[in-house]
Amino acid sequence: MEWVFILSCVLGLLVFLAILQQVWLAYQGRGIRGPGLVPPFVGNIVAMIMTPWNFYIQQEKLGKLSWNSFLGLYVPLFVHAVLCVCVSDQLPLEFTTVAYARPHG
Known about the structure:
The chain has helices at residues 2-28, 45-50, 52-61, 81-90; strands at residues 65-70, 73-78, 99-100. By secondary structure, it is of the alpha+beta class. Strands 1-2-3 form a 3-stranded mixed beta sheet. The mean pLDDT is 79.
C-alpha cells in the first residue's frame, strides 16, 4: 500500500512540474509569438529532429522573432542572422541560447 502512495506522489509532482513549466514558458514568451503548448520536459526538440524542414518553416511563419522550447530551455528564434547577432549581444546571460532559423535562401 505504501508504493501506491509513493507512486501517486511522484506522478502528482510530475504533473505539477509540467504545469509549472508551461506557466514559466508562457511568462518568458509573453509578447513574442511561439507555440501555444509545449510538450513537457522535452519541448519541441522531437519535432525538430524528426522533421527539421517543417519545423523551421512553421517557426518562420510565426514571424521574424519567435520562441520555442528545447529540453526545457526557452530559446528565441530569429529569421535574419543580423538580427540574431544584434539581439544576442544585448541579452542577459540567462538567454545563452539564441537560434537563427532560416534553412533556405
